[in-house]
Amino acid sequence: MRRALIIALLVLAAVPLLFGVSQLPPIGSTGNPTYTHVVPRYLEEGAEEAGAENIVTAVILNYRGYDTNGEVTVIFTALVAVLGVLTFAKATAAKSEPAEETPVPAPPMPVSPVTRFIVRILAPFILLFSIYMVIYGHTSPGGGFQGGTIVGALLIAVSLVSGSAQAKRLLPERIRPWLQPAAVLAFALVGVAGLWLIGPYLSFPVEGELVFLRTPWLTIIEFGIGIGGAAIVASIFWAMEGSD
Amino acid sequence: MRVLWTNIDYAASVVLFLIGLYAVIAKGNLIKKLMGLNIMETAVFAFVMATGIVTGGDAPILGKGAEPPFANPLPQALILTGIVVALSTTALALSLIMRIYERHGTIESDDLWGVE
Amino acid sequence: MTRIFDILLYALLISCALMVIRTKDLLGAAIIFSTYSLVMCLVWQLRGSPDVALTEAAVGAGVTSVLFLITVARTTRRER
Lengths: 244, 116, 80
Fold this sequence. Notes:
The complex is a heterotrimer of chains A (244), B (116) and C (80). By secondary structure, chain A is an all-alpha fold.
């Protein structure tokens, strides 16, 4: 009875949504309002203004750089919140009420030797490919975050196959607090340099004698996003696994 | 009806959004609700990307061998940020679910009424 | 021709989403969710955006599914 009521309500909500969707301009034409407003300028002048042939990277890092700054702050905040919920709560609970919670079972899982062999053989090539994607982010599909997430997933795979203790040696404990906010720090560095040299925060030189700075700044940001993304994804996995 | 057939990309994302909304409302398990929320998020991404379709368009990467018309690069940049934010909220929600299970022993929302 | 492929992919997406919310075994639901993310990655690639396809494949089918599996392993496996 309750389920039938919910389904009826959703079907009722679907009618105005589908009606509204059918009134939108037709899909696929280049005369759409979303295509004629600001995109021709991005496509025609993006390569010279932003210094990147991949227009999506140019839009992310140059035209909409503030949004990317906010995005890396969001994922770093999520890491801080996950660590706060999982490790801090466990520490205070162990101090105040030691024997009141359901114990969490953690049985060791056997891993088949085929998986272990393949992960160990493929790991250096995956790392090489992700570094290639980070470096060539502005001339081919790829970019900072794609490469960073692939390295993070590689760390997760190595941790599942060889045990967390061995995988954590790839990101040593002492430098891990400096690798996790690498994206936020890279953005702050480039932004303050732009503030000091040119004008507003996070501004890129368009023409003049400072044009040669564009490529190093873009590379610093991309590497920062890559390293930060990898460290954050791996740290979230290790915190949730509970082996800290 | 015929106009809906032309705009079928939009209609498919609306249907996916409503499927996710049903999972959030009607299911009792917290993990199932979170999967429904994730389906809703990807349905919204599909809707925004559908506004950027250009029939016969290439990827917007200039270089040798790329010719106009190009696909719209603006929704792609917005969706990249959206995917990262969806990952952040999913990770935080899953860690909260683990803490709820450790403290109360259950993750059914019917049993969690009125606990502190 | 490509419209038929698009419509097939949308039908696969909708059926994957329906199966995710119908399965009572949470481990199976997490794996079907990974398949849903993979089909979504194919949809992005067909729309001419390889960047978004790479990100969705790495994040959705890679990291999010592993996080769901860890949560299912440390909480219950069957839904009531």
